[in-house]
Amino acid sequence: MRTRWNDFFFFFMIVLLATACSKNIRETTVENPDASYRLVIAGDSSEFKDSIRERLMNNYQHICHIDVVNLDKLEGIDEDQYDAVLIMDTLMAWGGFNREVKRFIDSRQDSRKIVVFFTAGDPESVYSYKGVDAITSASVPAQEDDVVDRLTREIDLLLSGQR
């Protein structure tokens, strides 16, 4: 019984910490009337993800109209209006992730426009859900360049129609 209680307590603390670590992002739109493409970035906030999001926005602001929204707005996103959908979330213990992300992916017949980035305690694990492969990384500033490069490659493939 004591072991079961310890397991429950440990699980509760992980969920509590994960919830406390994620917060809403500052929603914004980068208008570009000459944009050839439309990109939406849905996510939660952390220092690491915010930095990556800012770098991606700087990379794409000259060729994309960019909408940045919180994860709770995913359900309202019409991916037909976008050339790429980037989801930035936190991978919880035992591979769990935000239910809005799961619902969004579940409700799509074609997930080719979706790029998922998870910050994870075990960044070496390969994570895939319903044909969507996730890019994972620990929230380590030294890995930021690699993450931005990997996300840029995936988004570029979408924008060029090669994916």
Sequence stretches where pLDDT stays below 50 over 5 or more residues: 8-21
Class by helix and strand content? alpha/beta
User: CATH architecture, please?
Assistant: 3-Layer(aba) Sandwich
What is the string of helix and strand elements?
Answer: HEEHEEHEEEH
Which strand order does the major sheet show?
1-3-2-4-5-7-6
State the CATH superfamily name. Flavodoxin domain
**Measured distance between first and last alpha carbons:** 51 Å
Average residue pLDDT: 84
- Cα-based radius of gyration, to the nearest Å: 16 Å
- CATH topology: the name is Rossmann fold
Tally of discrete structural domains? 1
- Helices, by number, come to 4
Percent helix, as a range, is: 25-40%
CATH class: Alpha Beta
> What is the total tally of β strands?
7
Largest sheet: 7 strands, mixed
From the spread of the alpha carbons, the general shape counts as globular
Strand content: 15-25%
